Amino acid sequence: MDDLIRMGEQAQQASRQLAQLSTARKNKILKLVAQALRQFKNEIIVENNQDLVNVTGLTDSFIDRLTLDDKRIEQIATGVEQVVTLSDPIGEINKGWKTEDELAITKQRVPLGVIGMIYEARPNVTVDAFALTFKTGNAVILRGGKESLLTNIKLVAVIKKVLRDNDINEHAVQVLHDTAHETANKMMSLTDYIDVLIPRGSARLIKTVVENAKVPVIQTGAGNCHIYVDEFAQAKMAVNIIVNAKTQRPSVCNAAEKIVIHSVVATKILPMIAKALKPFNVELRGDEQARKILPDIKLATEEDWQTEYNDYIMAIKVVDSIDDAINHINKYNTKHSEAIITDNYANSEKFLQQIDAACVYVNASTRFTDGFKFGFGAEIGISTQKLHARGPMGLEELTSTKYLIRGHGQIRK
Amino acid sequence: MDDLIRMGEQAQQASRQLAQLSTARKNKILKLVAQALRQFKNEIIVENNQDLVNVTGLTDSFIDRLTLDDKRIEQIATGVEQVVTLSDPIGEINKGWKTEDELAITKQRVPLGVIGMIYEARPNVTVDAFALTFKTGNAVILRGGKESLLTNIKLVAVIKKVLRDNDINEHAVQVLHDTAHETANKMMSLTDYIDVLIPRGSARLIKTVVENAKVPVIQTGAGNCHIYVDEFAQAKMAVNIIVNAKTQRPSVCNAAEKIVIHSVVATKILPMIAKALKPFNVELRGDEQARKILPDIKLATEEDWQTEYNDYIMAIKVVDSIDDAINHINKYNTKHSEAIITDNYANSEKFLQQIDAACVYVNASTRFTDGFKFGFGAEIGISTQKLHARGPMGLEELTSTKYLIRGHGQIRK
């Protein structure tokens, strides 16, 4: 049984040191961690093999995500080196002003403190989470999927050795050894020590964390993304974007799940879309109006409008106005990413302003919602909540701020 | 029994309209609300009197906060008019850039959506919460203390009439009629409809919300504020600031509760402090070293270091270095406001950087931690968490952002 209070105290202690480290020193450590991962790769693979022997009855894709080999470890090490190249948000001054009382206030970017990461059996997340939290001066407590426990313990041991060798408090990173749900629940209640919880993984895992946590959570979420083909859309562009947004990687949260299309262009464009999706074996479903145009498709149900398929399925809603499109999308979307295809200026602006989502696109694929594609150089996840962070999260979203106030003896009257 | 799902749906519906209102229109409504409060003040006072008749066995200060009269209603109306003068953060572009894929991204400030406010029997908060959330384009669901129910219902009715008369969805503001704890708990679980909960009130109320809410909470919190008198402090400045921070308004969260003092200056300055606090009947407690200098004071216990007195009591800790001071403060503070009194540059910088708190002061009273004193023109509360908002919260903290992405047909490769 992990002593969570003790782990929390140790993490908080470590976070004090981390908050004061220079960017150069943090970068040096990250480079050494990348080297150490390469140096100890055989030992890591031995532990990973043991994890793989222990799992039974899981899907191929699960096992694939759990498996480490030379190539994967090289990718992980390279990923750490990429974090070195990112600019360090800590110490940045967001704003500064002088008050009526002549106090000089500056708002400075600081680490969050202690971050709790809860994720599935993906050992790459273990190292990635360390690299991103360390670069931003945070201590991290990791709770990975139980199937990857031995791998995670080894990875963290490799990182800790580098920390110790460089006089950094090794509790900058800690991993839960006990994978019972009870222990995870205790971790989610450590409000005195953990500043933020970040769950990464399936909708179910995230829901569990949101429902059980007392520590503030950054919710990275599900996507039920829509492409709205406006009455003023270029047909070819609409087809291209829908094919891309559905098929380029259907399992991810920024893939499109729904087509909303204006009735004026539906007769022309829906058959083009159906034809273009055919080679990818995308199953189409639709409302009554869509089925008048594409008679072979199944009737979409209320459940369809709500569902994130993450699969080669799409449902089609025909609307008679952009307002109906916006209302439909705002009713069913998960506030992730939504797109309009149009050549009409007023409609593009209306859609951008009235759709309630982290990312709203005009004439582009929803698949661009991504920390790397946005140019952040990293991605902690994509926030679908409105507090703290919304949309793709880079290093800045792992930070907080504090006010520094310089005076000369002022008292309040 | 309130139908919370229905209230949530209605609030969300209203929030769509509010998000699109121009600043001019929002300001017009706020001015009319102020007028209506004055116009209907007698009816409001009748309901308030009924609330006052119903309460029994409560303290004078409780009843004082609950009571409305002509003067109080005028103050509330003036408060609404002050919100009119604040600049509207909605629509502001925080940043914009072009990505490698030639997508033009702008990050725009938008309302949070639906805010839930949970607070005590203070009718002024009802109107204040409406004014601030409305100005920032948010719908609000109010759950005030049960003792103020009739007053709150009347105040909200007055506001709703103005909304209806001006074609604004009246569900922009709603009040829970059912004051059972169960209903409040249901409200705290409305994750599909409420974007953020803001509890305002006692530490106990806030703790209850943090422990029970599934909706994200902005925690406004307790203050266990310290004044550290450095070895290089000006004695007179230290005394002035301590007297101000303790006695100017001892019941509030930014009042100082603890003195930490360097041993080199303790013998000289502690008696000066004790003398200056004497006219205010401040009870001093101290560690063994402090008691050698001030033999009449009580020994401070572990509980003292942890306690926010909100009263005319202060505890004194003598330290032998600034590092000991920083460690003591980081161990016991509530991350609210901390001050150092010093003329030494290196020590001031060390304290500013190493103290973990929302607001860190050099040579000024902690009493300045306040949205108005910071120049925000409003104060929703003082956040002691690190997510989303930290320190005094103004209008900006009632907003979120979204990314608007303009393309010309880009798909992801």
UniProtKB/TrEMBL annotation, chains A, B:
Transmembrane spans: none
Assigned EC number: 1.2.1.41
Name this polypeptide is given: Gamma-glutamyl phosphate reductase
Function as written in the Swiss-Prot or TrEMBL entry: Catalyzes the NADPH-dependent reduction of L-glutamate 5-phosphate into L-glutamate 5-semialdehyde and phosphate. The product spontaneously undergoes cyclization to form 1-pyrroline-5-carboxylate.
Sequence ranges assigned to domain Aldehyde dehydrogenase in this UniProt record: 5-284, 313-402
Classification via InterPro entries: Ald_DH/histidinol_DH, Ald_DH_C, Ald_DH_N, Aldehyde_DH_dom, G-glutamylP_reductase_CS, Glu-5-SA_DH, GPR_dom
Pfam families the UniProt entry points to: Aldedh
PROSITE patterns: PROA (PS01223)
Subcellular location: Cytoplasm
